[in-house]
Amino acid sequence: MSTLTDNSKRYGLVSQVLHWGVAALMIAAYVSGEVLVVATDDAKAGVMYWHASLSVLVVGFFVVRAGWRISQTSPDELNQNKLMVLAHKLTVLALYALPVALTVSGALSMLAAGQAMGFFGLDFLAGWAIADHELSKLLEETHIILAHAVITIFGLHTLAALWHQFVKRDGVLARMLPMSLDKS
């Protein structure tokens, strides 16, 4: 394992930046998706542009965060209950895999609808666009189901943090908040 985060304060800082960065991007992508549902036909292209761009950023941030988590050992994991560590790792895996699957299903839905994927002004995968209405609808429905799954896991993750704070009283939630870095 790397010594990049060889002390708990530095580990906590990197962890918080990655955690809240991913959370902010996921919330922004979700909000833009909800706006897309109610957007007028004139506004849909612009909202889709931002929704797709934010979704690709979420995946990029996940890749960075996953690489960091794989290369580091949390100071807390060393003294934790093995079942709780497993539950945490499975939740994190779901929080990584579902948004990636969500982004892929959205991109494939757009391509099946005959649209190119846009990412901050760049059209990519344009040559892969096809016009298959049935496939596009199926992928769009899959995208919606995955969005609900992400929100459910996100809610369970939040409830677990609250459980740690108010039932276990082990300080996990306090360590996740940015102002906790001032304490040492």
What does this structure look like?
This protein is mainly alpha-helical and 184 residues long. The protein has a single domain, classed as Fumarate Reductase Cytochrome B subunit (Up-down Bundle). The chain is built from five helices and two strands. The chain has helices at 8-38, 41-71, 82-112, 133-168, 172-176; strands spanning 117-119, 122-124. It has a two-stranded antiparallel sheet with strand order 1-2. Strand 1 (117-119) and strand 2 form a beta hairpin. Helix 1 runs antiparallel to helix 2, helix 2 runs antiparallel to helix 3 and helix 3 packs antiparallel against helix 4. It is elongated, with a radius of gyration of 19 Å. The two termini are 24 Å apart. The model is unreliable at 1-5 (pLDDT under 50).
In short:
The protein has 184 residues and is mainly alpha-helical. It is built from five helices and two strands; from the N terminus they run H-H-H-E-E-H-H.
Supply database-style keywords.
single chain; 184 residues; mainly alpha; Fumarate Reductase Cytochrome B subunit; 2 strands; elongated
